TrEMBL record:
GO terms for molecular function: carbohydrate binding; carbon-oxygen lyase activity, acting on polysaccharides. GO terms for biological process: carbohydrate metabolic process. InterPro entries: Chondroitin_lyas, FA58C, Gal_mutarotase_sf_dom, Galactose-bd-like_sf, GH-type_carb-bd, Lyase_8, Lyase_8-like_C, Lyase_8_alpha_N. GO terms for cellular component: extracellular region. The keyword Nuclease does not apply. This is Chondroitin AC lyase. Gene3D superfamilies: 2.70.98.10, Chondroitin AC/alginate lyase, Galactose-binding domain-like, Polysaccharide lyase family 8-like, C-terminal. Keywords: Lyase, Signal. Residues 1-26 form the signal peptide. Belongs to the polysaccharide lyase 8 family. The keyword Lyase applies. It comes from Nonomuraea solani.
Amino acid sequence: MRLRLPVLLALALLLPLITPAQPASAERNVSVEEDISVMTARARDQLISLGDDIHIWNGNVMARASQALDYVASLRPDGSWADVDYADRTNSANGATWKPSIALSRMNAIAQAYRTPNHPGADDPALLDALNRSLVYWERADPGGRNWWDTEVGESMVMGRVSLLTGDRLAPDALDLAFKHNTGIADPIGANGSWRTQNYLFEALSRQDPATISTGLRTMAKALAVNHTGSSTEAVQVDGSFWAHGAQLYSEGYGMILFNSVAIWADLARETSFAFTRAELDAVADYILGGTRWMVRREFGLLYLGYRPARTVQGVSTGAAEFIVPLQAMIRTDALNAAAYQRMLDNIMGTAASNGTEGNKYFWRSEFSGHARPGYSIYTRLNSARTVAGEYRSTLRPEIGNEIEWNSAGATAIQVDGDEYTGLFPVFDWYQYPGVTNPYQLKTTAGVSANAGTFVGGVSDGRYGATTLQLDKGQTKGTKSYFTFDDEMVALGADISSSATGPVYTTLNQAVARGTTSVDGAAVPHGTDRGARDGATWAYNDKTGYVMPDGGALRVSSKARTGSWIGHEPVSRNVFTLYVDHGVKPGNAGYAYIVLPGASEARTRAYARQPAVRVLRNDADVQAVTHAGLGRTMAVFTKPGTLDLGNGRTLSADRPSLVMLDGPGSNPKVTASVPDVPGATLTVTLTLTRSGKSRYAVFELGSGAELGKPVTQELTDTPDLPDRRLTAGTAVTAPALAGDGDPATSWRSDRQDFQWLRYELPRGSLLTGVRLTWGRRAATRYVVQSSLDGVTWKDHEFVTNGTGAQVNTPVAGEPARFARVLMLSGRGGYDVAEMSATSVVNLAQGRPAGADGSTGDRTPAMAVDGSMSTRWQGLNTDSTWLRVDLGARKTLRTVRLSWESAFARQYALQVSDDGTTWTDVYRTPASGSDGGPDVLPVQATGRHLRVQTLQRDSTQYGPSLWEIEAFAEERVPGPPAPSRENLALNRPVTVDSSYADAVRAALVNDGNATTRWASQREDPPITPRWVQVDLGRTRPVSQVKLLWEAATATDYTVKISADGVQWTEFARVRKPQTRLTDTIGRSPLEARYVRVEGVPATRYGLSIWELEVYSGYDLSCEPTTLETGRPGTVNAHLTPWTATGQVRVEALGLSVSGPAVVGADGRIEIPVTAGPPGSAALLLTHTGGPEYALCYVDVSGPST
């Protein structure tokens, strides 16, 4: 019998309800209450130590503790300030002032003054009275804002600080109001999450609650957890960088805020029972010492930060100064890493030349390179179509232009003393970033133009490194590469062309002019402005030399320049600028220069005569340099090709890649990367031309979070790779035998019951079927599954009494990278003669994608990542384009476009072999697209595929695509059906309002998570909005799931009704604005109508991608990793959970070791002990229904 769901199992363990343990202070002989008292005192001292200025909003000083008595005097009897507009709704983003924040800042100042020793208002009852009245008035006025941060984070921060500083003295009703308006939660996601958690902890300390204090601190530590999925855009990445607001490097800014929050709370909890664990402290060290430290030498190496003035901390006025306090906190807290933190701190304070880094680190996730030596550091920031170039957080001055437009197009900070740029920023020429090639013309709009180039990346062996940038931005194209050694950096540019009207410059440096400034040994007079030095071979300024091995149209300036930050007085600085002038509209231009940081003028002169490095090639196909003294050769192949190394050696790469050779002989180590193709296989060949002998390095490179990661390996005598399509948990005979086409051979497992055999599919596959041919030992119970990542599996068939032979399992077009048969029981091991899978392949998935521009953090790569939760959004214009490089000429028969509600009414599909000349293969008819998804039959062949939009449906936004998919097949399966019946799917919907037809009511339950309903908008939002669905008849409802767009509600109600007139509350939901998926479960209630109703959190109304309603239960598990022989916990969740319910557990390859913890919310914690290394699982069923869950456990060997 073959079942989709299993029967209940006889071997079972019933799980009792146990409450989690409270934190304890055991062996220290100190009570938890005393620990809380210590933490509270430290937290109050820490808030007081922030100083007089209250600058929660945008760094702007809104109040001062020293003026607290003035605020008390000016407070009116009703608790308001006459000069504060409590009804103001100004969005505080980008520096504007939300007027109610002035009142909040004054409350903060009063609370701080009350608690500050020796302050004139210390312990003054008048200050408490003012706080009591101002809190009561705040409740009455209930100010709101357009920016979620103002109310959800900023307001909560003030309320948390007030309760912590004065909660033990405030009137009870006032304290309750402070608690009410503090919406802090334990949120481990990013910098905003750390703020929310901090606010949660303020209240936890005020309430003296050990459980919530512990929860808050553990959550704070989790904020630095490394995200290994490759999809998170608000987390520490696997390379040690930090992302926020999309795929955007933010190790400064939000990353610095995150470190500050975590370090402060680690310090507050040190030497208490709540203290950070060793693993939690190590996570902080990995992030800062192993990551961010590689971006700082006294000052950040991200030059664009200077467009806004830095704060002054303990006398240091740099962008990196905000690290001072958290570094001091970690020195106190983490003795193991205190010396390393101290070295970083000393460098930022200016008392040490180096911060302790030495080597080369390439951050492949964020496309940033840090190269450090004791005497200097060089930082290079790149940007591809996969990442966000930056976000503009200021007020644009047209006469200055957009200061950050070119900040990540190869911007290279050359730092010896570390202050080469800091004092320069008020007068900086933002169109001559060091290392950048760009047209010299102002951009006078906010935002940052995307780079359409996709071949952008780096290679590093930890000591030396190279990076490359395929430039396609600002009407300018070219290939730029940077190679770093011990004493020098070599920069090469080739194939540079531009159609822009301004002259194109490559800037070697723009820095403070000081010391000797010369070109070819001749002094550059102060006041020189763009002086021509054609053919010059070297230049010098301020401890750094520049060598031009091929000469060129060199230009130099050394003069005073006047400028200012916004709202600041003008200043004058002496500025040195050195650049190559490529002229107006160049074609096939190039350059080569060498930077010698820390060199003397004499050393530069000598180096120019006899360079230590040699440029091997610098053209559109290959850029390569070699350093004979170090035995290092680095090459960038922009297409498959061969490089002559000299001395009878050639180096070849069979695809675009970055390659580094470590050693001059016949057997060097090879380090390589492919930055733009997930899961690429690269073959590097070193040939000795005299003997004709070749040696090979074959790389199987990463995808997801590992895309672009450099890999090092030895050369071998053969280029062959083993067949890895089939893999298994154990193997008496090879898994490949199950894919050799010979039914007489088979994969054979060992004799354990729990086994698996996995088949790898091509990237972009839509799985249509799995075929198994069993050998002598067939499984009697097994599950056929698929997965996108090899970690999370979806079941397609559960067979409970298998009999062997050949079995076919049809699958309805499930997106998958792997198919698997999971064997649960049999007759002492298993034999599989053949396993295969059929699929339709999306040729565009994971391929390099570029565009003429993007909006915000919605990059072109998001349209080919296989995810319907990320999307590309084009420029806010009718005509914009998105292109995909398919890697080779492909035959196309179907293209599927999944539009967001901002879609193109008219567009063309085009193909090209060279990415330059395009041919239409489809154009929309006169009626245009309806927003799709558009499934388009085509007859085309080409390497590149492009969507060229012609007319938007709405002029409010740029066209936006969730995915572009390309297939060689004419018949393409649609999305698979859900595994549970969605009672709301395509049922009649009623709403209070709809904003437009493109976001009409029927789209809220159409089963497509890329279409949505949106209500009418209102500013300020005060009208409740609602949507309701008619299930057709009375059904038991146990779960409602909402997929929100950003226009959500933070406090809403789910209601049910039998007649659509009389309503009963199903659940009330309070949530942070940033949580956009809500699953609400409870014991089943009978209902025909389900309604969601709430006041919008923003002026954009309510907007929901999908409203889903379910009967029955949802039983799920979290994957777990354990060490053999060690105890651990497997976590599961059952929704809804009822007190009478029972969960049954069958152990497969491990043992259940004791009573389990079951929470009232249905969270189940099952204590287990791992068996031998390999795979294991728990099979869960429950008494309330037929649902089951397989909880996978990966068991590793014992640690050494």
